């Protein structure tokens, strides 16, 4: 693959002349960098257009490199649970969103509060002590949505998609809300849009769009989207790219990606060292989210006693 060094183009940020006409900043010209690659500067759009043929190849190469640098950067973990201050599980099954206060609470703290609460207190929010929504659930979600809460907007989109809580099923409304939630920071919303375009659920199948939205979600830390990118890369025969995606997902707790790396190791597509590293990273993640209350909550769900609103 051709690289920037092959093209012999500078990547320094101290460029002071227009790549097309050669006029410099010393003449008082306000040069602007190419927004895609940051490799060159131009004094105006006409110069940028005139230089496009010469610059196009280098621009595409560097733009892809910049994209991959962002894509394969380990995203920051979720915030800590606001009650126990232990890292929240990345998987949504380990935490509960409270629409009353907009907080994500780990299921361990939900279970711990309920196990100590009186009968009257049992079903209130463990953080703000607000009673559960029940009949006014949609009213609370709409209120949180008006406050630009991305999680509330994302969940509301899911209710429109499925027709839950008395809402008329509306796929277009769901996509609109997911898009808004994604722009406000919801990785789950972008992942959902990617899933819709991948399966063709209410829209035409568009794998390119699916990959685009999965990438947006993965860069924000959505592990399922990251795993999907790994699967896509593996199916296309790009083993190195697939392993990068799977390893990032494993560090954020994806057991599916860990299993994928194991299968790749068994098939000769990954080394033993890579598989061992994945196992170690997964154990580190489990250690970071572990608490006695969370173990008790998990056991309660297995026994059928878990009940969080």
Task: Note the main attributes of this structure.
single chain; 309 residues; mainly alpha; Serine Threonine Protein Phosphatase 5, Tetratricopeptide repeat; two-stranded antiparallel ribbon; two-stranded antiparallel sheet; 4 strands; 4% strand; disordered N terminus; disordered C terminus
Short synopsis of the structure:
The protein is mostly helical and 309 residues long. It is 55% helix and 4% strand. β1 (32-33) and β2 (41-42) form a beta hairpin.
Give a written overview of the molecule.
The protein is 55% helix and 4% strand. With 309 residues, the chain is mainly α. It folds into two domains: 4-59, no CATH class; 92-303, Tetratricopeptide repeat domain (Serine Threonine Protein Phosphatase 5, Tetratricopeptide repeat), CATH 1.25.40. Helix 11 runs antiparallel to helix 12 (255-266) and helix 12 packs antiparallel against helix 13 (272-289). It is globular.
List the helices and strands and how they pair.
Elements: H1 4-7, E1 32-33, E2 41-42, H2 45-50, H3 52-71, E3 95-98, E4 103-106, H4 107-116, H5 137-146, H6 150-162, H7 171-183, H8 187-199, H9 207-219, H10 223-235, H11 239-251, H12 255-266, H13 272-289, H14 292-303
Antiparallel strand pairs: 1-2, 3-4
């Amino acid at each position: 693959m051709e690289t920037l060094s092959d093209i012999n183009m500078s990547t320094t940020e101290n460029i002071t002349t227009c790549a097309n006409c050669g006029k410099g900043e010393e003449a008082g010209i306000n040069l602007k960098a190419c927004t895609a690659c940051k490799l060159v500067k131009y004094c105006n759009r006409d110069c940028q257009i005139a230089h496009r043929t010469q610059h196009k190849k280098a621009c595409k190469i560097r733009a892809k490199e910049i994209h991959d640098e962002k894509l394969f950067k380990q995203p920051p973990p979720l915030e800590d649970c606001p009650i126990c201050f232990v890292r929240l599980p990345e998987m949504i099954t380990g935490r509960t969103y409270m629409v009353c206060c907009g907080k994500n609470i780990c299921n361990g703290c939900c279970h711990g509060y309920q196990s100590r609460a009186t009968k009257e207190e049992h079903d209130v929010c463990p953080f703000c002590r607000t009673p559960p929504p029940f009949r006014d659930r949609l009213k609370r979600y709409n209120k949180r949505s008006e406050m630009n809460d991305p999680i509330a907007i994302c969940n509301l989109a899911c209710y429109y998609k499925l027709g839950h809580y008395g809402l008329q099923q509306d796929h277009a409304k769901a996509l609109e809300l997911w898009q808004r939630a994604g722009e406000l920071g919801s990785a789950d919303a972008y992942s959902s849009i990617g899933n819709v375009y991948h399966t063709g659920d209410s829209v035409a199948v568009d794998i390119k769009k699916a990959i685009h939205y999965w990438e947006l979600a993965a860069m924000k830390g959505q592990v399922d989207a990251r795993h999907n990118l790994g699967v896509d890369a593996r199916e296309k025969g790009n083993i190195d790219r697939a392993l990068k995606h799977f390893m990032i997902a494993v560090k954020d707790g994806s057991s599916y990606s860990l299993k994928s790396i194991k299968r790749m190791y068994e098939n000769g597509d990954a080394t033993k060292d890579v598989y061992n590293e994945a196992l170690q990273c997964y154990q580190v993640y489990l250690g970071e989210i572990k608490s006695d209350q969370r173990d008790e909550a998990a056991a309660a769900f297995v026994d059928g006693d878990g009940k969080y609103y």
